[in-house]
Design brief:
Layout (H helix, E strand, L loop, with lengths): L1 H55 L13 H8 L19 H12 L6 H7 L6 H16 L3 E5 L2 E4 L16
Antiparallel strand pairs: 1-2
Helix pairs in contact: 1-5, 3-5, 4-5
Length: 173
């Protein structure tokens, strides 16, 4: 009688082990699908932000695409040439969600952070998809003038960004 109970227990254990393995496989597949969806969402969000910025830009009616106006050339001449410093646009795009959280975090950090550090500090899962998505956000924030990448992969708040303003414009010094 004890032998039959042990046999039943072993079968139940093996069945549950197989169920756990299958659920782990499904979970990994879902994580991969989530990472792909998050990357797509980030790209769509960036595209929407860019289109909104283009739509609301105060561009002179007589300005032709591809032609720099005299004021534009002055801005190009005064652009910093120090590696790691991006030209800071006069009007930065509005920040929301993780972009805003990342800027606030980096504005309060005493040292540059890597994308993985930002992901961890914001309480997200430390998985490749999250880290790569954050890296893309941080690089976009460099382009937008909120952050600088002083060394490859090390991000910090851009100089000239004083008390960060979450609405899209920041006080500059």
């Amino acid at each position: 009688m004890v032998t039959s109970l042990l046999t039943k227990l072993e079968r139940a254990e093996e069945s549950t082990r197989q169920q756990c393995a299958e659920l782990s496989r499904q979970l990994e597949e879902l994580r991969e699908r989530l990472a792909v969806a998050q990357r797509r969402l980030e790209r769509l969000s960036i595209a929407r932000e860019e289109l909104t910025a283009l739509e609301t830009a105060d561009e002179p009616a007589d300005a032709k695409p591809g032609k720099a106006t005299e004021g534009d050339q002055d801005a190009v001449r005064s652009a910093p040439e120090t590696p790691g410093h991006a030209e800071i646009p006069p009007e930065r795009p509005a920040l929301r969600g993780l972009r805003k959280d990342a800027v606030v975090l980096l504005a309060s950090s005493d040292e540059p952070l890597r994308a993985r550090d930002v992901v961890r500090a914001l309480g997200q899962q430390d998985v490749r998809g999250q880290v790569e998505g954050m890296r893309a956000r941080l690089k976009r924030l460099v382009v937008d003038g909120w952050l600088v990448e002083r060394e490859q992969g090390l991000f910090s708040i851009a100089s000239g960004v004083n008390g960060f303003a979450g609405g899209g414009s920041a006080a500059t010094s």
